[in-house]
Design a protein that fits this description.
Layout lengths: L1 H19 L6 H8 L3 H8 L2 H7 L13 H12 L8 H7 L4 H8 L2 H9 L8 H11 L7 H22 L20 E4 L2 E3 L4 H11 L5 E6 L6 E8 L2 E12 L2 H4 L9 E6 L8 E4 H8 L7
Helix pairs in contact: 3-4, 5-8, 7-8, 8-9
Length: 296
């Protein structure tokens, strides 16, 4: 029986590595994707690295075994992958070094990216350099006037493709809005008839479905980050996470928040492809919870 369990674990790990297109899968990533308990791995292989070696993959070394150059070379390698993202989640999926180790070594993920930029080829990596520079640049000061302008521009950009694709349903968007109540599209999801149109709506909707998404809320408070919660990473094991609520994920940067002080952005719409923080998009979550729900 133990032999069968070992073979099944090896097969599962190889499958996950294949899905991620990597030869090194971290233990947290394996546990999250497989649902296997750490105890089972230890019983069958003695350690997670034992399972990794049995699967013919590359085991991760302890952080102290890597020099600064080793870490930066690895970040460069991952960022040069096709369709790479600047997120710690993408790095975790593709690297044999944990993002937490990089954060500790360089004083945060932003600093790690800045140090990495110095090692890139100004010509061959020009596009990647631009992405890093734009991402690590200081955010716009959240003064009311500047933030209002930025938010308006963001909304206009977010709806541009939507308006073009929906040319059949002609709507006069220049028509004046009557009254002070603005509603989102109809979703008729349980006790919520309309989609959120602001951050408060996001907070309300998250409260409705957080338990089904594997979260329990400890506190919702004023100031950054908005919420402290715990999420279930596998049966019987929970992880503390710091949550910031935004209507759209990119507002996180417009508000000048530090990504190293937040674990998850909970938003209605994810419009920040290179976000360095894990994003939970509630619009997509509703589709998983209620597949018959028409997407707004």
């Amino acid at each position: 029986m133990k032999s069968d369990e070992r073979e099944e674990l090896v097969k599962t790990l190889r499958g996950i590595a294949g899905e991620l297109g990597t030869d090194s899968v971290s233990m947290p990533e394996f546990l999250r994707r497989s649902g296997v308990s750490e105890w089972k791995i230890q019983r069958c292989f003695g350690s997670y690295n034992g399972l990794v070696e049995a699967a013919g993959l590359v085991p991760r070394r302890f952080a102290f075994a890597y020099s600064d150059d080793d870490m930066l070379d690895e970040i460069v390698r991952v960022l040069r992958l096709p369709a790479s993202k600047l997120t710690t989640l993408f790095f975790e999926q593709q690297s044999k070094i944990s993002s937490s180790a990089c954060k500790r070594r360089f004083g945060g993920w932003l600093n790690a990216l800045k140090a990495t930029a110095a090692r890139l080829d100004p010509v061959g990596d020009a596009t990647l350099l631009t992405r890093i520079q734009e991402y690590t640049a200081p955010a716009i000061s959240p003064q009311s006037d500047l933030e209002s302008i930025a938010t308006d521009a963001e909304v206009a950009e977010g709806h541009a493709d939507e308006e073009e694709a929906d040319a059949v349903a002609v709507v006069d968007r220049s028509a004046p809005v009557e009254g002070g109540n603005i509603y989102g599209d109809f979703i008729n999801f349980r006790g919520l008839q309309h989609a959120p149109v602001n951050e408060q709506g996001v907070v309300f909707l998250f409260g409705m479905i957080c338990r089904e998404l594997g979260y329990v809320v400890e506190i919702v408070k004023q100031g950054f980050p908005d919420c402290e919660a715990k999420r279930q990473v596998r049966p019987g094991l929970w992880q503390r996470v710091r949550i910031e609520f935004e209507f759209r994920s990119r507002s996180f940067r417009l508000h000048g928040h530090d990504p190293d002080q937040c674990d998850v952005i909970v938003c209605w719409e994810d419009n920040w492809p290179d976000c360095p923080v894990e994003v939970l998009e509630l619009k997509a979550a509703l589709q998983r919870l209620s597949p018959t729900l028409k997407a707004p």
